[in-house]
Write a structure and sequence with these properties.
Number of strands: 3
Strand order of the largest sheet: 1-2-3
Strand content: 5-15%
Number of helices: 4
Largest sheet: 3 strands, antiparallel
Helix content: 40-55%
Length: 96
């Protein structure tokens, strides 16, 4: 199973929150339509567009985000701000 098959809309929202990034900013960096991201994040979707997810995962990964089995984490070596703790952010119950 490919990594993108395990990424959820809640993880994308959590990753943006860790980075303090708006939907508009992420879409500009990932070169996707804001409507696609908004629709995906607002879910519930049973199937995410793999091309969009690949772009989001790559873009967020370049910003220091790692997707984990329980949420997302921000790699501490990427940023020096106080937000960069490297701690795992767990998803709320029922978010999967």
């Amino acid at each position: 199973m490919e990594e993108i098959d395990r990424v959820t809309p809640a993880q994308i929202r959590a990753a943006r929150a860790l980075l303090g990034m708006t939907q508009k900013e992420l879409c500009a960096r990932a070169r996707i339509a804001i409507g696609s991201l908004a629709k995906m994040e607002d879910g519930p979707l049973t199937r995410l567009n793999p091309n969009i997810v690949r772009g989001l995962v790559a873009t967020l990964g370049a910003c220091g985000i790692r997707f984990t089995a329980t949420g997302v984490e921000l790699a501490p070596a990427i940023f020096s701000s106080s937000r960069a703790t490297g701690a795992d952010v767990a998803l709320p119950a029922g978010a999967r």
